[in-house]
């Protein structure tokens, strides 16, 4: 992945996203952090080019996004973002906030399955 220098504004934006995480993001993070999922290291609110990824595993080049309702109103932005990330060799898995809250184990199983295939 092409690394862009991070200015203080972008770093502060990522920090703010960490502080204002949704309940769904917090729930998934509690299960990903500290290499709890098959020893995979995930970062939270990780800057990647012009974007900030909810969760990112650099070893597997895998991003996990937990989408709230705004993503369903205008998913064109997500498509452009996902294409840019794919160009950097990053696969994006998207889950709704509802899935993350109600079907947490299934979400984690899917993440693990895709990670094991990469």
Report on this model:
The protein is an alpha+beta fold. The chain has six helices and four strands; from the N terminus they run ααβββααβαα. Strands 1-2-3-4 form a four-stranded mixed β-sheet, with helices on both faces. Strand 1 (43-48) and strand 2 (51-57) form a beta hairpin. The longest helix is centred in the C-terminal third of the chain and has 14 residues, at 104-117.
Task: Record keyword descriptors for this entry.
118 residues, alpha+beta, four-stranded mixed β-sheet, 6 helices, globular
Topology:
Layout: H1 8-19, H2 23-32, E1 43-48, E2 51-57, E3 62-67, H3 70-73, H4 76-87, E4 91-96, H5 97-102, H6 104-117
Parallel strand pairs: 3-4
Antiparallel strand pairs: 1-2, 2-3
Number of strands: 4
Mean pLDDT: 87
Strand proportion: 15-25%
User: Which sequence of SSEs, written as H and E, runs from N to C?
Assistant: HHEEEHHEHH
Sheet with most strands: strand arrangement: 1-2-3-4
Shape: globular
Largest β-sheet summary: 4 strands, mixed
The N- and C-terminal alpha carbons lie at a distance of 16 Å
Rg, nearest Å: 14 Å
Query: Which percent bin holds the helix content?
Result: 40-55%
Structural class: alpha+beta
Q: What oligomeric assembly is this protein in? A: single chain
Number of helices: 6
**Unreliable runs:** none
